Amino acid sequence: MTRHFLRDDDITPAEQSEILDLAAELKKDRWADKSLAGPKTVAVIFDKSSTRTRVSFAVGIADLGGSPLIISTANSQLGGKETPADTARVLERQVAAIVWRTYAQAGLEEISKGTTVPVVNALSDDFHPCQLLADLLTIREHKGELKGLTLSFFGDGASNMAHSYVLAGVTAGMHVRVASPEDYAPREDIVADADRIAAQTGGSVTLLTDPLEAAAGADVIVTDTWVSMGKEEEKLARLRDLGQYKVTQETMSVADSEAIFIHCLPADRGYEVDAEVIDGPQSVIWDEAENRLHAQKALLVWLLRQG
């Protein structure tokens, strides 16, 4: 059966750990796996602009012996004259996998139905699961075992990043705190899904409005841009609503003394996080950015092995 990775809970806790183990192995020996030798081609489709996703997938596919085919929807029929399902039927006869950075989660779900090659969510409005694999790899490198750690997210709790932290975090057995205004809380159905997973893994999800309460004793402090692509017209309102959730030196001082700071980037310095935190000794954002490469290579290898 073809496996897809459309949201963080498409993999079990054991599978998540397996992918992270493989990522660590591939990081140690970057050229060890040639699952895409041929070269096989992977279609990497972009509706949204990108730096880290584009580079890490293109380089990673090449590392695995394959050829990345970068497609812009602005220069293709996808989303115009052709449905995602029809595009998938064309691509699956020529490529080994499909990676799509898009807006609506529904498009990813449609393109995956009946498709005989793996489909990977490289970002949607609802989730960013590839980023979370990289983040978990980074946290594991710096903190050791993931299970039992407390991760605190600050800002827009209804964002794709917050949703993925909630799901991926509890899948790893972590305690995830989301600090946000009530109007920016994570979707109830996603929290419910996370609670079901947490009951099996020993993790938890806690929604808070007090940022310092959320930071207290945390092992990992994380935030994301307050103004995601497609929401630029909301910038002033978001800066007003989310201002107290900026990650500052005070935030870090309340967290565990050995806490680390992560951010998926790009960061709006001075808005959701102070530059002193980004450039400070507890920041591991550059390791995190590099780990997109290793985590996504591991994901592709793992998905191809499932077929």
Element pattern in H and E: HEHEHEHEHEHEHEHEHHEHH
Task: Kindly state the percentage of residues in helix.
Answer: 40-55%
Within CATH, the superfamily of the largest domain carries the name: Aspartate/ornithine carbamoyltransferase
Oligomer: single chain
Query: Unreliable stretches, pLDDT < 50, 5 or more residues?
Result: none
Describe the structure.
The chain has 307 residues and is α/β, with parallel strands linked by helices. It has two domains: 8-128 and 289-306, Aspartate/ornithine carbamoyltransferase (Rossmann fold, 3-Layer(aba) Sandwich), CATH 3.40.50; 131-285, Aspartate/ornithine carbamoyltransferase (Rossmann fold), CATH 3.40.50.1370. 42% of the residues lie in helices and 15% in strands. The protein has helices spanning 13-28, 52-63, 84-91, 105-112, 129-143, 160-171, 188-201, 211-215, 235-242, 249-254, 275-278, 285-306; strands at residues 41-46, 67-72, 97-101, 119-123, 150-154, 175-179, 204-208, 220-223, 260-263. The strands form two sheets. It has a five-stranded parallel β-sheet. The longest helix has 22 residues, at 285-306. The protein starts with 12 loop residues before the first helix and ends with a helix. Belongs to the aspartate/ornithine carbamoyltransferase superfamily. OTCase family. One of its GO terms (cellular component) is cytoplasm. This is Ornithine carbamoyltransferase. Pfam families: OTCace, OTCace_N.
Write the layout of secondary structure elements.
Layout: H1 13-28, E1 41-46, H2 52-63, E2 67-72, H3 84-91, E3 97-101, H4 105-112, E4 119-123, H5 129-143, E5 150-154, H6 160-171, E6 175-179, H7 188-201, E7 204-208, H8 211-215, E8 220-223, H9 235-242, H10 249-254, E9 260-263, H11 275-278, H12 285-306
Parallel strand pairs: 1-2, 1-3, 3-4, 5-6, 5-8, 6-7, 8-9
Helix pairs in contact: 1-5, 1-12, 2-12, 3-4, 5-6, 5-12, 6-7
